[in-house]
């Protein structure tokens, strides 16, 4: 009986490559776990040492931290709004000068759709009430 030889797949990685990948992953993962543990230990030790100082100075630190947070939030918010406003003005300038910025075609379609709907409503109103009469039924007295 003839033995069937397994076919060699050229796309299958060799065992040495798999071992190298696994070794590298385990080494890197273990190193990161050790660093994570050391960071956690240092954080806990730092909090234990800093807690008495924080408790003593908390009447000053808490309002100061709140004030700093509010000030930074205000600066970040105003900067964000300023950046957005600058972009909107730039976009409007490009749109007004005909340079076709991103989203201009969607704006044009929406404008055309609104104008078409308004024209249809006007035509329907003129058909129902006649030209020049734009009142709603029941709006006049009984």
Largest sheet: none
Number of strands: 0
Order of helices and strands: HH
Beta-strand percent range: under 5%
User: What low-confidence regions span 5 or more consecutive residues with pLDDT below 50?
Assistant: none
Instruction: Report the C-alpha radius of gyration, rounded.
Output: 36 Å
Task: Report, as a whole number of angstroms, the end-to-end distance.
Answer: 107 Å
Q: Based on Cα principal axes, name the global outline.
A: flat
Give the helix tally.
Answer: 2
Task: Kindly state the percentage of residues in helix.
Answer: over 70%
- Given the helix and strand composition, which structural class is it? mainly alpha
Mean pLDDT: 86
Membrane topology: Multi-pass membrane protein
GO cellular component, one term: monolayer-surrounded lipid storage body
Transmembrane segments: 32-58, 64-93
Subcellular location: Lipid droplet; Membrane
Describe this structure in words.
76% of the residues lie in helices and 0% in strands. The radius of gyration is 36 Å and the shape is flat. The protein has 2 helices and no strands. The longest helix is centred in the middle third of the chain and has 82 residues. It has 142 residues and is mainly α. It is a multi-pass membrane protein.
């Amino acid at each position: 009986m003839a033995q069937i030889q397994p076919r060699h797949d050229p796309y299958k990685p060799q065992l040495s490559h798999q071992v190298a990948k696994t070794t590298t992953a385990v080494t890197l993962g273990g190193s990161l776990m050790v660093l994570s543990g050391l960071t956690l230990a240092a954080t806990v030790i730092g909090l234990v040492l800093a807690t008495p100082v924080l408790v003593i100075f908390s009447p000053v630190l808490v309002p100061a931290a709140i004030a700093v947070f509010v000030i930074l939030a205000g600066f970040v918010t105003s900067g964000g709004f300023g950046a957005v406003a600058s972009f909107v003005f730039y976009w409007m300038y490009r749109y007004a000068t005909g340079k076709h910025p991103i989203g201009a075609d969607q704006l044009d379609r929406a404008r055309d759709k609104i104008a078409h709907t308004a024209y249809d409503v006007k035509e329907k109103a003129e058909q129902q009430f006649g030209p020049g009469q734009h009142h709603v039924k029941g709006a006049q007295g009984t």
